[in-house]
Amino acid sequence: MRVISGKFKYKLLYNPKDNKVRPTTDRIKETMFNIIASKDKVGNVFTLDLFAGSGALGIESLSRGASKVVFIDKDRDSFTLVQQNLKHVGASPENYEIYNVDYEFALKKLKNKEFDLIFIDPPYALHIENRILDLIKKYNVLAKNGLIMIEHDVKNSFEDDSFVFDTRKCGSVALSFLEYKQGE
Fold first, then answer.
1. pLDDT (tens digit per residue) in 77-87
2. What are the Cα distances from residue 121, in Å, to 83, 85, 92, 148, 163?
3. In angstroms, rounded to a whole number, what is the distance separating the alpha carbons of residues 65 and 167?
């Protein structure tokens, strides 16, 4: 697992020591960030990495110029891993925050923060995508012109009438990109 592009390009990231975390593969991460770039959500963006795991998605965003990334993971080992990876790549502490809390608590505390880019990569078996989207709307966590990227199993289906969906399949993994509908 490595950083694909930007100021931390080619830096290797530490992997989880067990199977609790399912890191996004470099191939999928490259596809994901190509799509994000096509939607103009790289560079000076305010980013949320929900279910951060190793921190790879948020670190990639930092590497590509994000102004700030907030990392959230309730697992203590993942929290420590994100800290190690940020230190390893040399990320500047003023450009990130890390919280060891549950996603519901985090979204409530992030009320009205209006992130430009939100990464959501929950454990596939939980099927909580709709719950997360409801909380993002309830607490105004996404900017009106922001982008949500949800990584999920292709068998997981979810919907929300507030968003325009753009879903891409990468083998058994799907990447869904959501933006508010015009006028929402």
1. 999 999 999 99
2. 18, 18, 24, 11, 18
3. 25
CA distance 37 to 155: 26
Distance of alpha carbon 180 from alpha carbon 28, whole angstroms: 24
Render the burial of 5-38: b for 16+ CB within 10 Å, e for the rest. Answer: bbebeebebbebeeeebebbeeebbebbbebbee
Give the span between the Cα atoms of 14 and 80, in whole angstroms.
Answer: 11
pLDDT in tens, 19-35: 666 778 888 999 999 99
Model pLDDT for residues 145-183, shown as the tens digit of each residue: 999 999 999 999 899 999 999 999 999 999 999 999 986
Contacts of 136 (CB under 8 A, 6+ apart): 107, 118, 142, 148
| CA-based max dimension of the chain | 45
Answer yes or no: are the C-beta atoms of 38 and 16 closer than 8 Å.
Answer: no
Q: Give this prediction's pTM.
A: 0.95
Strands (DSSP E) along 52-128, which ranges? 68-72, 96-99, 115-120
d(CA 87, CA 63): 13
Q: Count the neighbouring beta carbons within 10 Å of the beta carbon of residue 103.
A: 18
| CB contact set of 39 (below 8 Å; sequence gap of 6+) | 147, 177, 179
